[in-house]
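@channel sequence for tomorrow's demo:
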Amino acid sequence: MLLIRATLAFLALPAMVAGLVPTLLMRHRAPDPRTFSIGVAVLIVGSLLLLWCVRDFLVTGKGTLAPWDPPKHLVFVGLYRFMRNPMYLAVLTIVAGWSLLYLSAGMAVYLIFLAATFHVRAVRYEEPWLHRQFGAEWEVYAASTARWLPHWPKKKP
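structure tokens (generated this afternoon):
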């Protein structure tokens, strides 16, 4: 049942933001041959990072990426050892891949809009919720792990 909920959450959120919306925005354009290979490579990297994060939420967190069905345990394994928001970074990487694939300024603007939205959401909603939900465990994790720019962990929570 958890796998089904995780799949539905994936389809409802990142698949829409990083898949359906870019597809609709670029549907009348052809990929740019000058940046095609790098665009596809960035899309693949972002997709693999996203799937890794979703797996960690499912396996370690015992929940999904959806706000209505969040992880039951704080996730600080995998990419979460290096930064607090790798799932958002993965989605931004996918959108950057679309922007490169089509060499699209409009898609670059969408990328900037998403980055700002993700930052506000993380700071104003998710971090306070995580603090309420996980208390001291969250405080230790947040103090030792960067929000956005990956780095080697200082210490384990």
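heads up for whoever presents: The first helix runs from residue 2 to 12.
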